[in-house]
Amino acid sequence: MIRLEKVNKTYEGGVHALKDINLTFEQGKINVLIGPSGCGKTTTMKLLNRLTEHTSGTITLNGQNIQELSPVQLRRKMGYVIQNIGLFPHMTIFENVAAVPKLLKWDKKRIYNRVIELLEMVNLDPEMYKDRYPSELSGGQQQRIGVIRALAAEPETILMDEPFSALDPISREQLQDELVRLQEDIQKTIVFVTHDMDEALKIADQIILMKDGHVVQNGTPEELISNPADEFVEDFIGSKRINNGFDLPAVSKLMSNDFTSITTEATVADAIDVMMKHQLEALPVVNNEGKFVGMLHLFTALQKVDDPIENIVQSTTTLFPKMDGKKAYEAFSNSNLSSLPVLSKSKELIGMLDKDLLVRDIYDILDQKSGDQ
Ligand SMILES: Nc1ncnc2c1ncn2[C@@H]1O[C@H](COP(=O)(O)OP(=O)(O)O)[C@@H](O)[C@H]1O
Ligand SMILES: [Mg+2]
């Protein structure tokens, strides 16, 4: 956790870039700084890892005043990702990601395992990519490497200054999704700068809207949309979103925790019984640790009654608790199932999201909106 109390920054030459900033960046949260150019976003970021020093006030990292740490110690605790990541062009992907752990003199085996693990985390096949050079990757892939390079030495905090703004819209959306998903696993303190409100609304746990060195408003995306502090916030969010904005809660709020599943130890005949009893077209299958294995479809089961369940389960689109409800709705268009599994970060089956119920939620929200007016 990082806390800023009454922080001021005046640059040499007299620009008062930050004025009495009070903020908390909690661990496990994506904190997004947003505001017009020159409002002080990058300055805030640079104070955190002491690329520049604050003029007054206090900044603490997990309770410790950052002035008590040397800039080198501090930067080891903080990964930094910037817009044009500047991977080292003459080094392979492996060497790029391994750079900081090497500097910290990790042993070879540990470095190797860490690089492989990180490549897998962002869905880049290690065998395919580790020996390539940055120029042999697309922009989106290079930026993924930038992100995992910042994560390599297991920093507590990740600072990201407009990390995706140079990417095309599709790669950009993909990386935003991946960052949210990755954060489910890594639970770091992320401070993320952007000037794009769509990006902020999509990824933020906390949005901090700044103007002329002040914090104008901070809160969850829902809080800013439903209760903008003043006209500046309204303008920045866009009246379209405030008046007509239609938002669904996250999957965790929409899913059902009361669902039926079966373990791989059961027989297909058992599974058919369960499906008949509950009138299901498919049944989620978990192993004996509760981890999701796949879906058993009724028709497949009826044709393969004597097979072990594991052999006939089918993979499916899966959802995660923090996923945006609208994204989840879109997921149904790529699936022939009317109910999709929701998995925890360790792949346990924790809920099912039913398309019919989701549609009903949409109607409830529409009803509430027309009631408000
Ligand atoms: N090194 C510097 N010296 C003097 N003024 C600076 C310096 N860096 C930034 N500023 C000024 O501080 C203010 C905030 O800048 P910055 O934090 O970069 O804004 P943002 O990232 O929100 O665009 C601006 O007025 C900018 O001109
Ligand atoms: Mg900036």
Secondary structure topology:
Elements: E1 2-10, E2 16-25, E3 30-34, H1 41-48, E4 56-61, E5 64-65, H2 71-76, E6 78-82, H3 93-103, H4 108-121, H5 126-129, H6 139-151, E7 157-161, H7 169-186, E8 189-194, H8 197-203, E9 206-211, E10 214-219, H9 221-226, H10 231-237, H11 239-244, H12 251-254, E11 262-263, H13 268-278, E12 282-286, E13 292-297, H14 298-303, H15 309-312, H16 325-332, E14 339-343, E15 349-354, H17 355-372
Helix pairs in contact: 3-4, 3-6
Bound molecules: adenosine-5'-diphosphate and magnesium ion (MG).
Membrane topology: Peripheral membrane protein
Enzyme class: translocase
GO cellular component, one term: plasma membrane
Strand order of the largest sheet: 6-7-8-3-9-10
* Low-pLDDT ranges: none
- What is the CA–CA distance across the termini? 40 Å
Strand content: 15-25%
Full CATH superfamily name of the largest domain: P-loop containing nucleotide triphosphate hydrolases
The largest β sheet comes out as: 6 strands, mixed
Determine the fraction of residues in helical runs and give it as a percent range. 40-55%
CATH class of the largest domain: Alpha Beta
* Average of the residue pLDDT scores: 91
* Small molecules in complex: adenosine-5'-diphosphate, magnesium ion
Q: What is the helix tally?
A: 17
Main structural class? alpha/beta
